[in-house]
Protein backbone atom coordinates (compact mmCIF):
# COMPACT_ATOMS: atom_id res chain seq x y z
CA UNK A 1 0.00 0.00 0.00
CA UNK A 2 1.46 3.41 -0.95
CA UNK A 3 2.22 5.71 1.93
CA UNK A 4 0.39 8.95 2.51
CA UNK A 5 2.57 12.02 2.14
CA UNK A 6 4.98 10.71 -0.48
CA UNK A 7 5.08 14.25 -1.92
CA UNK A 8 7.36 15.00 1.04
CA UNK A 9 9.79 12.16 0.32
CA UNK A 10 13.44 12.92 -0.35
CA UNK A 11 15.33 15.89 1.06
CA UNK A 12 13.61 18.61 3.04
CA UNK A 13 15.99 21.22 4.45
CA UNK A 14 15.04 22.88 7.73
CA UNK A 15 16.31 26.31 6.79
CA UNK A 16 17.78 28.83 9.22
CA UNK A 17 16.16 32.20 9.82
CA UNK A 18 18.80 34.81 8.93
CA UNK A 19 19.13 37.90 11.11
CA UNK A 20 21.02 41.15 10.66
CA UNK A 21 21.17 43.55 13.59
CA UNK A 22 18.54 41.40 15.31
CA UNK A 23 16.02 41.84 12.51
CA UNK A 24 14.86 39.35 9.89
CA UNK A 25 17.21 39.59 6.90
CA UNK A 26 14.77 39.16 4.05
CA UNK A 27 17.32 39.38 1.23
CA UNK A 28 19.44 36.69 2.91
CA UNK A 29 16.35 34.47 3.29
CA UNK A 30 15.68 34.75 -0.43
CA UNK A 31 19.28 33.73 -1.18
CA UNK A 32 18.92 30.72 1.13
CA UNK A 33 15.77 29.64 -0.73
CA UNK A 34 17.44 30.11 -4.13
CA UNK A 35 20.45 28.07 -2.98
CA UNK A 36 18.19 25.14 -2.09
CA UNK A 37 16.26 25.37 -5.35
CA UNK A 38 19.48 25.39 -7.37
CA UNK A 39 20.73 22.35 -5.44
CA UNK A 40 17.63 20.36 -6.37
CA UNK A 41 16.30 20.08 -2.80
CA UNK A 42 12.78 18.67 -2.78
CA UNK A 43 11.27 20.79 -0.01
CA UNK A 44 12.20 23.49 2.50
CA UNK A 45 10.94 23.88 6.04
CA UNK A 46 11.01 27.45 7.39
CA UNK A 47 10.49 28.32 11.07
CA UNK A 48 11.20 24.93 12.54
CA UNK A 49 13.69 24.33 15.34
CA UNK A 50 16.55 25.27 13.02
CA UNK A 51 14.64 28.44 12.09
CA UNK A 52 14.62 29.55 15.75
CA UNK A 53 10.83 29.69 15.81
CA UNK A 54 10.65 29.97 19.64
CA UNK A 55 12.40 33.36 19.54
CA UNK A 56 10.44 34.91 16.68
CA UNK A 57 7.54 37.23 17.29
CA UNK A 58 4.20 36.08 15.88
CA UNK A 59 4.53 38.72 13.16
CA UNK A 60 8.03 37.51 12.25
CA UNK A 61 6.92 33.88 12.22
CA UNK A 62 4.16 34.66 9.75
CA UNK A 63 6.43 36.90 7.69
CA UNK A 64 9.02 34.14 7.27
CA UNK A 65 6.34 31.71 6.09
CA UNK A 66 4.77 34.26 3.73
CA UNK A 67 8.10 35.37 2.24
CA UNK A 68 9.25 31.76 1.81
CA UNK A 69 6.07 30.77 -0.03
CA UNK A 70 6.13 33.96 -2.13
CA UNK A 71 9.78 33.57 -3.15
CA UNK A 72 9.54 29.81 -3.67
CA UNK A 73 6.72 30.54 -6.13
CA UNK A 74 6.05 26.87 -6.76
CA UNK A 75 9.71 26.14 -7.60
CA UNK A 76 10.14 24.05 -4.43
CA UNK A 77 7.71 22.64 -1.88
CA UNK A 78 7.28 24.50 1.40
CA UNK A 79 6.60 22.65 4.66
CA UNK A 80 5.93 25.49 7.09
CA UNK A 81 6.59 25.10 10.79
CA UNK A 82 3.26 25.87 12.49
CA UNK A 83 3.45 23.91 15.74
CA UNK A 84 2.68 25.30 19.17
CA UNK A 85 1.88 24.09 22.67
CA UNK A 86 -1.34 26.08 22.36
CA UNK A 87 -3.86 24.36 20.12
CA UNK A 88 -5.53 27.64 19.19
CA UNK A 89 -2.20 29.19 18.23
CA UNK A 90 -1.29 26.12 16.16
CA UNK A 91 -4.62 26.44 14.32
CA UNK A 92 -4.00 30.14 13.69
CA UNK A 93 -0.48 29.58 12.34
CA UNK A 94 -1.58 26.65 10.19
CA UNK A 95 -4.47 28.64 8.71
CA UNK A 96 -2.01 31.40 7.87
CA UNK A 97 0.40 28.95 6.23
CA UNK A 98 -2.39 27.58 4.05
CA UNK A 99 -3.55 31.08 3.12
CA UNK A 100 -0.12 32.03 1.72
CA UNK A 101 0.35 28.81 -0.23
CA UNK A 102 2.35 26.40 1.93
CA UNK A 103 2.28 22.81 0.66
CA UNK A 104 2.19 21.35 4.13
CA UNK A 105 2.47 22.18 7.82
CA UNK A 106 5.09 20.61 10.06
CA UNK A 107 3.74 20.57 13.59
CA UNK A 108 5.88 19.80 16.59
CA UNK A 109 4.32 17.91 19.48
CA UNK A 110 2.98 20.36 22.08
CA UNK A 111 5.94 21.12 24.32
CA UNK A 112 6.28 22.05 28.00
CA UNK A 113 2.70 21.21 29.00
CA UNK A 114 3.32 17.46 28.45
CA UNK A 115 -0.11 16.26 27.30
CA UNK A 116 -1.39 12.72 27.74
CA UNK A 117 -1.71 10.54 24.65
CA UNK A 118 -5.33 11.66 24.44
CA UNK A 119 -4.21 15.28 24.62
CA UNK A 120 -1.74 14.81 21.79
CA UNK A 121 -4.42 13.16 19.68
CA UNK A 122 -7.04 15.84 20.31
CA UNK A 123 -4.53 18.64 19.62
CA UNK A 124 -3.70 17.36 16.14
CA UNK A 125 -7.28 16.29 15.50
CA UNK A 126 -8.42 19.87 16.21
CA UNK A 127 -5.89 21.39 13.82
CA UNK A 128 -6.77 18.87 11.10
CA UNK A 129 -10.47 19.66 11.53
CA UNK A 130 -9.84 23.41 11.31
CA UNK A 131 -7.43 23.54 8.35
CA UNK A 132 -7.39 21.46 5.18
CA UNK A 133 -3.64 21.12 4.61
CA UNK A 134 -1.28 18.11 4.70
CA UNK A 135 0.15 17.84 8.23
CA UNK A 136 3.58 16.46 9.05
CA UNK A 137 3.90 15.44 12.70
CA UNK A 138 7.20 16.28 14.41
CA UNK A 139 8.14 14.07 17.34
CA UNK A 140 11.26 15.28 19.18
CA UNK A 141 10.98 14.41 22.88
CA UNK A 142 14.44 15.83 23.59
CA UNK A 143 12.90 19.26 22.91
CA UNK A 144 9.30 18.75 23.97
CA UNK A 145 9.86 16.77 27.20
CA UNK A 146 7.47 13.96 26.18
CA UNK A 147 7.43 11.28 23.51
CA UNK A 148 4.39 10.76 21.33
CA UNK A 149 4.00 7.01 21.65
CA UNK A 150 3.52 4.81 18.56
CA UNK A 151 -0.01 3.91 19.67
CA UNK A 152 -0.97 7.59 19.72
CA UNK A 153 0.68 8.27 16.36
CA UNK A 154 -1.14 5.28 14.86
CA UNK A 155 -4.46 6.85 15.93
CA UNK A 156 -3.45 10.16 14.37
CA UNK A 157 -2.42 8.39 11.17
CA UNK A 158 -6.10 7.53 10.62
CA UNK A 159 -6.85 11.24 10.14
CA UNK A 160 -6.70 11.77 6.35
CA UNK A 161 -4.73 15.04 6.35
CA UNK A 162 -2.02 13.76 8.72
CA UNK A 163 0.30 12.32 6.11
CA UNK A 164 3.86 12.12 7.45
CA UNK A 165 6.07 12.31 10.51
CA UNK A 166 9.49 13.77 11.20
CA UNK A 167 10.87 11.06 13.48
CA UNK A 168 13.45 12.57 15.84
CA UNK A 169 13.33 10.28 18.85
CA UNK A 170 16.60 8.61 17.84
CA UNK A 171 14.89 5.27 18.49
CA UNK A 172 15.05 2.78 15.65
CA UNK A 173 12.51 0.65 17.51
CA UNK A 174 10.00 3.49 17.50
CA UNK A 175 10.70 4.21 13.82
CA UNK A 176 10.22 0.51 13.01
CA UNK A 177 6.83 0.47 14.69
CA UNK A 178 5.69 3.59 12.83
CA UNK A 179 6.71 2.04 9.51
CA UNK A 180 5.08 -1.29 10.36
CA UNK A 181 1.87 0.01 11.96
CA UNK A 182 1.01 3.14 9.95
CA UNK A 183 1.00 4.27 6.34
CA UNK A 184 2.61 7.60 7.16
CA UNK A 185 5.62 8.78 5.21
CA UNK A 186 8.43 8.59 7.79
CA UNK A 187 11.21 11.17 7.55
CA UNK A 188 14.38 11.12 9.61
CA UNK A 189 14.73 13.97 12.07
CA UNK A 190 18.41 13.16 12.67
CA UNK A 191 20.86 13.69 9.80
CA UNK A 192 23.17 10.88 10.91
CA UNK A 193 20.28 8.37 11.03
CA UNK A 194 19.10 9.02 7.47
CA UNK A 195 20.54 5.83 5.99
CA UNK A 196 19.39 3.53 8.82
CA UNK A 197 15.87 4.93 8.50
CA UNK A 198 15.86 4.61 4.71
CA UNK A 199 16.96 0.98 5.08
CA UNK A 200 13.83 0.23 7.11
CA UNK A 201 11.47 1.89 4.64
CA UNK A 202 11.73 5.56 5.54
CA UNK A 203 11.24 8.05 2.74
CA UNK A 204 13.75 10.81 3.42
CA UNK A 205 15.14 13.39 5.82
CA UNK A 206 14.30 16.79 7.26
CA UNK A 207 17.89 17.97 7.37
CA UNK A 208 19.98 20.56 9.20
CA UNK A 209 23.24 19.73 7.41
CA UNK A 210 21.41 20.28 4.13
CA UNK A 211 21.74 24.01 4.81
CA UNK A 212 25.34 23.73 3.59
CA UNK A 213 25.65 20.42 1.67
CA UNK A 214 22.24 19.68 0.15
CA UNK A 215 23.80 17.97 -2.88
CA UNK A 216 25.49 15.38 -0.68
CA UNK A 217 22.31 14.63 1.24
CA UNK A 218 20.52 14.25 -2.09
CA UNK A 219 23.24 11.86 -3.30
CA UNK A 220 22.80 9.67 -0.23
CA UNK A 221 19.01 9.42 -0.69
CA UNK A 222 19.32 8.88 -4.46
CA UNK A 223 21.96 6.17 -4.05
CA UNK A 224 19.78 4.24 -1.63
CA UNK A 225 16.69 4.57 -3.85
CA UNK A 226 18.72 3.31 -6.83
CA UNK A 227 19.82 0.25 -4.88
CA UNK A 228 23.43 1.43 -4.79
CA UNK A 229 24.00 0.33 -1.22
CA UNK A 230 27.79 0.71 -1.14
CA UNK A 231 27.50 4.22 -2.57
CA UNK A 232 24.86 5.13 0.02
CA UNK A 233 27.06 3.76 2.78
CA UNK A 234 30.03 5.76 1.50
CA UNK A 235 27.94 8.96 1.54
CA UNK A 236 26.73 8.13 5.05
CA UNK A 237 30.28 7.85 6.37
CA UNK A 238 31.43 10.92 4.46
CA UNK A 239 28.63 12.95 6.05
CA UNK A 240 28.81 11.38 9.51
CA UNK A 241 31.42 13.62 11.18
CA UNK A 242 29.86 16.74 9.67
CA UNK A 243 26.43 15.67 10.93
CA UNK A 244 27.82 14.81 14.37
CA UNK A 245 29.55 18.14 14.86
CA UNK A 246 26.85 20.35 13.36
CA UNK A 247 24.34 18.79 15.73
CA UNK A 248 26.62 17.93 18.64
CA UNK A 249 29.02 20.82 19.31
CA UNK A 250 26.15 22.85 20.77
CA UNK A 251 22.37 23.04 20.58
CA UNK A 252 20.95 23.37 17.07
CA UNK A 253 21.02 25.85 15.29
CA UNK A 254 24.16 27.30 16.95
CA UNK A 255 26.69 25.17 15.00
CA UNK A 256 24.93 25.37 11.61
CA UNK A 257 24.72 29.15 11.85
CA UNK A 258 28.41 29.28 12.80
CA UNK A 259 29.22 27.09 9.79
CA UNK A 260 27.20 29.29 7.45
CA UNK A 261 29.03 32.36 8.77
CA UNK A 262 32.40 30.68 8.20
CA UNK A 263 31.31 29.83 4.65
CA UNK A 264 30.22 33.42 4.01
CA UNK A 265 26.55 32.52 3.71
CA UNK A 266 25.05 34.11 6.85
CA UNK A 267 25.85 36.65 9.54
CA UNK A 268 25.72 33.86 12.09
CA UNK A 269 23.49 35.97 14.31
CA UNK A 270 21.35 34.11 16.84
CA UNK A 271 18.51 35.24 19.06
CA UNK A 272 18.89 34.97 22.81
CA UNK A 273 18.82 32.67 24.66
CA UNK A 274 20.92 31.08 21.89
CA UNK A 275 24.56 32.20 22.05
CA UNK A 276 27.51 31.68 19.66
CA UNK A 277 29.98 28.82 19.82
CA UNK A 278 32.91 29.27 22.18
CA UNK A 279 36.47 29.48 20.76
CA UNK A 280 37.31 25.79 21.27
CA UNK A 281 34.06 24.58 19.69
CA UNK A 282 34.51 26.97 16.76
CA UNK A 283 38.07 25.72 16.23
CA UNK A 284 36.76 22.15 16.11
CA UNK A 285 34.04 23.18 13.65
CA UNK A 286 36.63 24.88 11.42
CA UNK A 287 38.66 21.68 11.38
CA UNK A 288 35.58 19.61 10.54
CA UNK A 289 34.72 21.90 7.64
CA UNK A 290 38.33 21.75 6.39
CA UNK A 291 38.41 17.96 6.61
CA UNK A 292 35.16 17.78 4.66
CA UNK A 293 36.61 20.07 1.98
CA UNK A 294 34.33 23.04 2.60
CA UNK A 295 37.13 25.33 3.82
CA UNK A 296 40.70 25.57 2.43
UniProtKB/TrEMBL annotation:
Enzyme category, top tier: lyase
SUPFAM superfamilies assigned to the protein according to its UniProt record, in alphabetical order: Aldolase
Enzyme Commission no: 4.3.3.7
Primary location group: cytoplasm
Residues carrying the site annotation Part of a proton relay during catalysis: 49, 112
Active site: 138 (proton donor/acceptor), 166 (schiff-base intermediate with substrate)
Gene Ontology MF terms in the entry: 4-hydroxy-tetrahydrodipicolinate synthase activity
Keywords (A to Z) from UniProt: Amino-acid biosynthesis, Cytoplasm, Diaminopimelate biosynthesis, Lyase, Lysine biosynthesis, Schiff base
InterPro entries for this protein: Aldolase_TIM (IPR013785), DapA (IPR005263), DapA-like (IPR002220), Schiff_base-form_aldolases_AS (IPR020625)
Family listed: Belongs to the DapA family.
Primary role: Catalyzes the condensation of (S)-aspartate-beta-semialdehyde [(S)-ASA] and pyruvate to 4-hydroxy-tetrahydrodipicolinate (HTPA).
One example of a Gene Ontology biological process annotation: lysine biosynthetic process via diaminopimelate
List of residues binding pyruvate: 50, 206
Oligomer and partners: Homotetramer; dimer of dimers.
UniProt organism field: Planctopirus ephydatiae
Reactions catalysed according to its record: L-aspartate 4-semialdehyde + pyruvate = (2S,4S)-4-hydroxy-2,3,4,5-tetrahydrodipicolinate + H2O + H(+)
Pathway: Amino-acid biosynthesis; L-lysine biosynthesis via DAP pathway; (S)-tetrahydrodipicolinate from L-aspartate: step 3/4
GO CC list: cytosol
Annotated localization: Cytoplasm
Protein name from the UniProt record: 4-hydroxy-tetrahydrodipicolinate synthase
PROSITE patterns with a match to the protein in the record: DHDPS_2
Pfam family of the protein (one): DHDPS
